[in-house]
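FW: tagging you since you asked about this chain on Friday. Here's the raw sequence from the shared folder, copied in full. Didn't touch anything.
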Amino acid sequence: MMNEITGAILQVLLFTAIPFLVYLVSNKTSKNFMVSMGIKQPTLISIKYAVLLTIAYTIPLLICITINTSILEIVLSKDMVAGKIRQMGFSLNSVVSLFIIGTLNTALAEEIFFRGFIGKKLVGKLGYKTGNLLQAVIFGIVHLALVALATQNIIFLIISFIFPTLLGYFIMDLNEKYSDGSIVPGIITHGISNIIGYSFIGFVI
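HL: got it, structure written out here
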């Protein structure tokens, strides 16, 4: 468990440090850094939409994973997070590890870096539509590359690109259009989706 906690903290720090250094060099000050990254209070309506987006994203993804036995075998392998959780068995240790990985290690760190930093930079330089699409594609490519390290299953690779790309696009849309740029709704959507997915694959099926 300590390894997961340490890894999560280091990843959040790293994914925050890079934007911070860029901001510091560009602005010669750290003032308003948090706000510029969207680390601020979200709107109430954006929280509601975050929950709806979680449902709309997670259910189809789990269906795509579970109806294909070859993909399910890959997801249950020790190379995947859900597979590692499953191998640990249902216990306090596995549940805590699941929450740490699902929220801090992935959702918080990735939303800070991809939506708070890359997304906002691209939107500022290229305009909203192009910037949002490009950050989503980058997010999808990163996930595709990570999955490609574990499998060459073409269907799973396609899923690993399409779903994160769609999630990245709609999270940015949610943050910018309904939450005044706050990345909190995206963190909520990303985190809950991870927790549901890891829990279902790790403990239920």
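FW: The chain has nine helices and no strands.
HL: agreed, and The longest helix spans residues 92-126.
FW: great, closing this out.
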